[in-house]
Amino acid sequence: MLFISRRIDFSATHVYRVSSWSEAENKRVFGLCSNPNGHGHDYRLEVVVKGALNEKSGIVVNTTDIKHIVGSFVEDELDGKFLDRQHPYFVTHMPTTENLAGYIWQSLENRFENCELHRIRLYENHYLSAEKEKAALTRLTRKYHFCAAHRLHSDQLSAEENLELFGKCNNPHGHGHNYYLDVTVHGEPDPVTGMIVNLAELDEIVQKQVLDKVDHKHLNLDTAEFKDLNPTSEAVAMVIYNMLHPHLPELHKIGLWETEKNYFEYRGAGELS
C-alpha cells in the first residue's frame, strides 16, 4: 500500500458562540473566540490517500486529480468564508477545529477514484491541529513549549559506559533544549460546544501538571519524577503521559520534540494506533 499526501491552504473566519447562553457564559467557555464579530485563521489542510501501485502507469493516482478534488471543495465551501454565517453545516455546528476536520473527512471520503482517503489533518495554527481517519475518533493536538536541562546518565552503567553511550550528553553539568510538547486527545466533539476538551481547561491542566514542574528546570536535579530515572527524551515523554492521564482521560498520546530532528512519542496501554 502506498500513501500520498497533498497540502491545500485556505483562510476562513468564524466565531464560537451559543446563542442561548449569556455573554458571561460564552466568554467563560470560549474566551476570545466568543468575539461576536468573529476572528480568522490561515488553515493548512493535509490530505493523505492510499492505494496500490498501477504497474502500467507507475502511479497510484494522479496528484493533479487530488489537487483538483480537494482544491475545488475547499474553494467552494471554505476558503474566504465566514463559516458559521455562510456555510449551512456550520450554522448549526460549532466551527471548531475538531468539527472542521470531521466535516472535511465526510465531504472528501468518497470522492477519490483508484485510491482511498486515509487521513486528513487540519492545522488551525502552529499550536493547534485536528486529524481524522476512517473508523477512528477525531484527534486534537495542542502544542506547548518548555525549556529544560538534563544530563543523560544511568547509575546502572559505569562511567565509561555512560560516556560511550551518551557522549557529550553525559556532561556532568548537563545540557539544555527548547522542548516542544504535543498533547493529543481524542473523542467525539461535544454536540453543543464542538470541543473534545475545553482548550482553556486543557491548558490549565498541562500548565499545572507538567509545565510548572519542568519549565526552566534541570530535570535530574529539580524534579521528583527524574530523581531516580535517567531523563532521556523517551522517558520524559512517558513520564509526561503519566503525569497527565489521571487528569485527562481523553489523552491519546504525547509527542516530544527534543530538537527539530529528534521526536519521541508515547502512548499508554491500549493506545496502539
UniProtKB/TrEMBL annotation:
Q: In which pathway does it act?
A: Purine metabolism; 7-cyano-7-deazaguanine biosynthesis
Reactions performed catalytically? 7,8-dihydroneopterin 3'-triphosphate + H2O = 6-carboxy-5,6,7,8-tetrahydropterin + triphosphate + acetaldehyde + 2 H(+)
Matching InterPro entries, A to Z? 6-PTP_synth/QueD, 6-PTP_synth/QueD_sf, PTPS_Cys_AS
- Taxonomic superkingdom: Bacteria
An MF annotation (GO) of this entry = 6-pyruvoyltetrahydropterin synthase activity
Sorted alphabetically, which SUPFAM superfamilies does this protein's record hold? Answer: Tetrahydrobiopterin biosynthesis enzymes-like
EC?
Answer: 4.1.2.50
A Pfam family it matches: PTPS
Q: Name one GO biological process term.
A: tetrahydrobiopterin biosynthetic process
KW Ribonucleoprotein (keyword) present: no
Q: Which cofactor does it need?
A: Zn(2+)
Q: What class of enzyme is it?
A: lyase
Q: Which UniProt keywords apply?
A: Lyase, Metal-binding, Zinc
Family per similarity comment: Belongs to the PTPS family. QueD subfamily.
This protein is called 6-carboxy-5,6,7,8-tetrahydropterin synthase
| Organism, as annotated | Paenibacillus darwinianus
